Every structure is written in structure tokens, then in C-alpha cells.
Amino acid sequence: MVDFADTPEQAGFRHTVHDFIEKNLPPVLRLRPDEAAFRGFMEEEGENERDARAKERAEALKKWRAALVDKGWIAPAWPKEYGGANLSPMEQFIMNETFTETRTPRLGVPDVGSTIMVHGTEEQKKEFLPPMVRGETRWCQGYSEPGSGSDLASLQTRAVRDGDDFIINGQKIWTSGAHLANMIFALVRTDPEAPKHRGITYLLFPMDSPGISVRPLVQMHDARGFNEVFFEDVRVPVRNAVGEINRGWYVGATHLDFERSSIGSAVGQRQMLDSLRTHLVEQRRQQPERSRLERADSPRLELADRYVEAIVAKTLSQRVISMQARGLIPNYEASMTKVFATEFNQRIARTATKLLGKYGDVRNGPEEYTPMRGRWATMYLSSVSSTIAGGTSEIQRNVIATRGLGLPRG
Ligand SMILES: Cc1cc2nc3c(=O)[nH]c(=O)nc-3n(C[C@H](O)[C@H](O)[C@H](O)COP(=O)(O)OP(=O)(O)OC[C@H]3O[C@@H](n4cnc5c(N)ncnc54)[C@H](O)[C@@H]3O)c2cc1C
Questions:
Q1: Is the predicted pLDDT of residue 46 greater than 60, yes or no?
Q2: Cα-only R_g, the chain
Q3: Taking the model in full, what pTM does it have?
């Protein structure tokens, strides 16, 4: 039988995390229960910025970051010399779990940091990792192009060598956060003659490099997260290539393995379900005529299914964590976690909007008509894209079929 209880060491570490939060978290940053559950989705909407307390929170956030930087808990997995704390994957999981349970905002580093950690030179680690930890750099991902999404290796953005520089021309699309980022990591074609996977290089460069322009794309739930990014004769030093020139495909793939691990999401999903259940029970007490909890044909049984799936999600995350603990980079295992976690998000949103009744789909308006501040309705829309971002569910299933099950390529 699998025992999920903490060992004495893990319990001790959990206590340390609680203690640290108690001593250092400015009270204004403690998230409200509804904010905590929907944190990931709210950040995407920029809801925190619209909050009236934004200024006070921004100041508090600086203090909170400084405390976390001091402790090495912004990038807890990294060695101490790059600003990390050298925590084991299980300690990281406990830390994340404790932050989520106590409604504490987490500050982290982007996945590109882990990629630099694996493939970067010592100089690159020293140059790029500490500013990430201090929150001075904000990164965006330049992979997809208008003609290259799932078949990413067909990308056309060209980088031509000119002495110690590359000169880049081309276009990226669906670049999340490019309008806010000051750095980009991009896949570019450096050898058009080579087979498509063998002529790609992984480059890091500032977004204010001359020749870069950014054009926003608006999503169906009004979020302005996406952009097109255009490159016209952009100069990037050759020393900014991560890994070998023309071997960037494999560097980019490591990045996707990190991105797909989704090890943080299971705890948040459980919390979202808890917030839904609490709301429904309260609604039944206050407005029994609106409650759908008793109806025999109601989707309430779905809620039970969602709770079962929350345990599956957590177990999949724990598998990824245990691989990382052994120094392995999860590959098809990360795809399994990604496909499950993102499709699970959509199922949770569907169940919630059904259970909330006829106003479950309303996003904006008076409180009476927007149960749980319309957050589930927003999540219903925004969760659609999660099965596309970072590689579609079909692509993840291809990875599981070929690399996990050893089936032939279709
Ligand atoms: C929220 C979000 C954020 C994103 N952020 C970024 C970002 O920051 N940077 C970035 O570079 N990109 C980003 N993307 C783009 C994302 O990586 C691509 O949308 C994704 O890889 C799919 O590519 P595509 O849109 O070109 O679809 P296509 O590749 O054209 O796919 C269309 C359909 O065909 C299916 N399909 C394609 N090939 C196969 C196959 N071999 N087998 C079975 N089915 C297949 C797909 O599953 C899909 O259903 C983001 C996307 C979203 C939705």
C-alpha cells in the first residue's frame, strides 16, 4: 500500500515552511479564499492589477520577494550559488502545497531557467539566472510560428551568422506575455539545408533589441495575453545560444518537458473544487430553490467524479516528482500529467457551470447573477486553450503512444 503520510523529516520541513510564512508574509498579500483557488486564471486576466489595493500590494510584494530571495525559495530546486535552495523535489512539493493551503502567493522562475540550468554554460547561468530570481527579467517563449505549431520543427524564422552575431528575420505567434517581457527565448533556423530537427538553435535575447516589434492578439474571454512578434534584422550575439548551434531542437524539447510537468496544478485544482463545494452547500442553505444538489438527474454526481480525478491528478504529479528526485527528466510522464491536468481543468469548469445553475455561465454583472464572481464562467472559456498551449492533447497522446507505449509512429 502507498503511504502518503509525511515522514518525520517531511513533517519538520512542512513546519519550517509554515513558520516562514507566518513570520514574513505581509497580511495584505494573503489571498482571499476565492482568489487563492483561481489564482492561475486571475493572473492571466490581470485581475490583480485592477484591484484597488494594487499599490499597497505591490509594495508588500517587494518585501515578500526579498524574503523569498533571501531564503532561496524563488527557485527552490536550484543550487545556492544561482539563488536557489537546493530543495529535493518532495520538499518543493511540500513547499508548494503549504503555500497553496495557506493562500500564500508563490513567486517562481520561468521554465527557461531550468533549461539554462541543464544546457547552459557557466557564464550563461551566472548572467541569466540571478536576475530571474530577483524578478528583474520577464521572459516570453518564441516557438510557434504562423505555419509551425504542432509541427514545430518546420519553423522558418532565420538566423544568419555574421561574425560574432546572428541576424534574425521572421515571425513568431501566440507569444504569451511578449508585451510585458524584457527577454525572449526563441527557436530559430540556423541551417536551412539540414534535416528539419537538425538546423535549429535555441537563442536568448532582450526584447528591446532593435528590429523587434510586438502586436497584440485578444482572446475570447477578453484577456490580452497573446502577441505576434516580428524580427527584422535583429542582432543577437552567438554566445547567447544555449547548447550547441543547430542542436537547439533538443534544448527546446527539454524546455517543453519542464513546461508540461504541471506538478503545481493538482493542489490548486483540489482547492478550486473545495471552493465550489463550499459555495454550493452555502447556496443550498440560503436559496434552496436555486440548489441543484438534490436533483437525481443533476450533475452533482459529476462533482464526486471530479474529486476522484483530483486524487489521480495528485498521484500523476507525485510520479513526476519522484522521477525528478532521481535526477530524471520526465518525458512521456510529463505528457501524461499535462494531458490529464488540462482536460481535468475543462471538466471541472463544465461541472461547476452546470451545478451553479442558470447563472453559472454569466461572467459580468451584479453579484446575484454572477455566482462566485463569474470566475467559473471565465475559467470555462480560458481552460479551452490549456489543452492547446505547450503542445495539444493529440500531440501529448502521440508522445505517450510512441515513447511511453513503444507504438509505431502514425
Ligand atoms: C494559451 C496559449 C498560450 C500559448 N503560448 C505560447 C507561447 O508563449 N509561445 C509559443 O511559441 N506558442 C504559444 N502557444 C502556441 C501553442 O504552442 C500552439 O498553439 C500549439 O503548439 C498548437 O499549434 P497550432 O496552434 O499551430 O495548431 P496546429 O498544429 O495547426 O494543430 C491544429 C489541430 O491539428 C491537430 N494535430 C496537428 N498535428 C497532429 C498530429 N501529428 N497528430 C494528431 N493531431 C494533430 C492538433 O492537435 C490540433 O487539434 C500558446 C497557445 C495557447 C493556446
A1: no
A2: 22
A3: 0.86
Domains of the chain: 8-108 (1.10.540), 139-246 (2.40.110.10), 261-404 (1.20.140.10)
Nearest CA residue ID for atom 27, ligand 1? 149
Of the chain, the percentage scoring pLDDT greater than 90 comes to 56
DSSP state of 9: H
Place of cell 537563442: 203
> For ligand 1, atom 5, which residue shows the shortest CA distance?
176
Q: Give 406 Cα–ligand 1 centroid separation in angstroms.
A: 24
Q: Which residues line ligand 1 (CB under 6 A)?
A: 140-144, 149-150, 172, 174-176, 385, 388-389, 391-392, 394-395, 398
In this structure, are residues 66 and 131 in contact, taking their beta carbons and an 8 Å threshold? no
Phi, psi (rounded to 5 degrees) for 16: -60, -40
For helices 111-119 and 248-260, the axis angle rounded to 10 degrees is 140
Nearest CA to ligand 1 atom 35: 394
Give one word for 365, left, alpha or beta, with left for phi > 0 and alpha for psi -120 to 50: left
Residue 177 CA: nearest ligand 1 atom is 8
Q: In angstroms, what is the span from residue 91 Cα to ligand 1's centroid? A: 33
CA separation for the pair 127, 177 (Å, rounded): 22
